[in-house]
Amino acid sequence: MAQVMEPSAGQSAGPPLSGAPLTDGGPADPGRPIPCRVLLLEDSGMDADLVREHLKMIDDHAFDIHRVETRQAFIDAIADGGPYDLILSDFDLPDFDGMSALAIARDRLPRVPFIFVSGMLGEENAIEALKKGATDYVVKLRMERLQVVVRRALVESRDRNELADKRAALAESEARLRFALEAGRLGSWELTLATKRLRVSSICAANLGLSDPSEISTYDRLLELVHPDDRAHQQAMVRQAVSSGSPLDMEYRTIWPDGSVHWVQVRGRAVYDKDGTPTGLAGVSLNITDRKKAEERQLLLLEELNHRVKNTLAMVQSIARQTLRAAPSVEAFPDAFQSRLRALAQAHDLLTRRHWQGASLSEIAALTLEPHVDAGRVRVGGPPVNLTTGVAVSLHLAFHELATNAAKYGALSAENGRIDLDWEITPPAGPAARDGAGHAGPTASRAATGALVLRWRESGGPPVVPPTRRGFGSRLIERGLAHELEGDVALAFDPAGVRCRLVIPLSSRVNPQ
């Protein structure tokens, strides 16, 4: 039989006993009763004893009853929070009524079962109480029902509380997952194989250049966004992940609605039913466009480094020869030669400073051409211009290629040859001209924003013979530089000397002081 421990009205009921697990058939520990703390609102001592005796008949439970008789005592007990596992209340009290008690309990302790134990008959009272949130209504003339009602209420409460706790834990887990995905810029996606239905998160849609996840609701729509050259590979990787159960890990290009090309990395796994039949795929996506651009820049720099190893020897030979010619004596040669070699080393250092915060155009030109300026064979001039790191590195590479070519074949290979490098700022030329479709052309756009115009001119060297093929240096200047700086490049192999003209639109990357 159940154990009942009842303190005097208004006294403390001892340490809380709630929180122990309940089961449909008995306690989790067969040798120990399930503790259950009860708040009893009853002004009649006889009726309170009657409730206590019926609770004793509930097997495997140890009831700790805290009895109160007045409104204030009930409010104080509720305010303390118990914790209580069950509330039993009379329906009619001298200074209080059960419906008011129910309202207070539902507001303060909404998860605790509330059962009326009333001497008042009438279905209307019971129905109204249940509508207001009561768990059950037991008439004192039929107290034998109390045992069944209490046991059922405790079991159902336990189940509801466990479900609520699991839902809260699930919601918290989902919130942490969303935070982790957003912090890592990861988009989530799910694909149903039978219908090809695709569900994506907002970040996943953004990784594909879309503002609304509803814009990509099927796998076929996704394929429309994949670069045509990568579609076959993308489909093959999906089929392999589904058929073999191996993790899906691939990178491919996508075409955004504005026509720009971006890279995305996709990872995931196939989902199977209980029979082992694949039903879908789920995973994450990441926009890796910046990483791919960095890798391309790194490859370009590595290629340039390999190319420059060969050019450096020719540059050193030219510097040595020209320094020896200009030196007033043999003793003065070593210091002048070493000084120019140090300047050349500084130019190499510039290529490795990945975190450089920019420089002026004069500094870039001086850094590249300093070995020849001292000999009076190079003239550099122009207004102050600030360059960001990317522009500074790109121009340094271009100047280096031009200087290397001049030292090997052009003006700097002859004793009387010279180089003029100057630049100017052209102001905006008014509204940009538009083509037949109403769009501004690139040249007109640059005129509308203003531009930096640089001119490289060689003279006094041997007659220039146009190359039969474009080498790496020419490709770097004519293609790479034009693309990186969004400008115009004109490289001419004039018989009197190489000419190069660069037109770079003014922007936050190229800014006159």
Structure described in brief:
Residues 1-29 are annotated as: Disordered. By secondary structure, the protein is of the alpha/beta class.
Task: Write up this protein.
The protein is of the alpha/beta class. The chain has 3 domains: 2-6 and 28-164, Response regulator (Rossmann fold, 3-Layer(aba) Sandwich); 184-287, PAS domain (Beta-Lactamase, 2-Layer Sandwich), CATH 3.30.450.20; 358-512, Heat Shock Protein 90 (2-Layer Sandwich). Helix content is 43%, strand content 24%. The protein has 14 helices and 21 strands. A 6-stranded parallel β-sheet has the order 1-3-2-4-7-8, sandwiched between helices. Helix 12 (389-408) packs antiparallel against helix 14 (472-485). The termini are far apart.
The CATH homologous superfamily of the largest domain is called Histidine kinase-like ATPase, C-terminal domain
Q: Report the total helices.
A: 14
Cα Rg: 42 Å
CATH architecture of the largest domain: 2-Layer Sandwich
- What's the level 1 CATH class of the largest domain? Alpha Beta
Which shape, going by the Cα principal axes?
elongated
User: Can you give the mean pLDDT?
Assistant: 81
Number of E-state strands: 21
Terminal residue distance: 93 Å
Give me the side-by-side strand order of the main sheet: 1-3-2-4-7-8
CATH names the topology of the largest domain as Heat Shock Protein 90
Which ranges are low-confidence, i.e. pLDDT below 50, for 5 or more consecutive residues?
Answer: 8-27
The major pleated sheet works out as: 6 strands, parallel
Percent range for β-strand residues: 15-25%
Instruction: Kindly name the structural category.
Output: alpha/beta
Give the number of domains: 3
